[in-house]
Design brief:
28% of the residues lie in helices and 29% in strands. With 184 residues, it is α+β, with helices and mostly antiparallel strands.
Amino acid sequence: MEEAIKQIGERLKGLRDVLDIPAEEVAELCGFTVDNYLKMESGEGELSVSSLQKISKRYGIALDVLLFGEEPHMSTYFLTRKGQGMSVERRSAYKYQSLASGFRGRQADPFMVEVEPKPADTPLEKNSHQGQEFDMVTEGTLELTIGKKVLVLEAGDSIYFDATQPHAMRALNGKAVKFLAIIF
């Protein structure tokens, strides 16, 4: 996981260098201090997928390039076999598996996400991003906080919401939760 985070940081720094973007601009876009953002570029901190998506959309670079270092190539279809999607562990408790990483020009980013349980007293880190999000729980129990509203989703439950609203997720009952997330 640490190597993947370091590689993403290197790609972000390379993007800024190529496009001559000040670190302050990217930090502001993501809602971070410049020092915290620079830690993320150096691999000492972690950026959420939603922050990477903000950068992706703002600077016109595919999310896959930031996450995986590869440009999508397919434009008719892209098949992902069970368990075979490009995977990255972005944060210590979150594992993302891209389900459409090879499809060029897609208008949504589908992921299988696994959230590991944390102690109940661990503060939630809310994030937000442009667009909308659809989540469907496939295993376990997910606590989803949107703004001040706390919702509990069981396997088979789904939700569609405005992703610009601050939101956070937590696995309940001491077990990991898996869900399909589609970010539009």
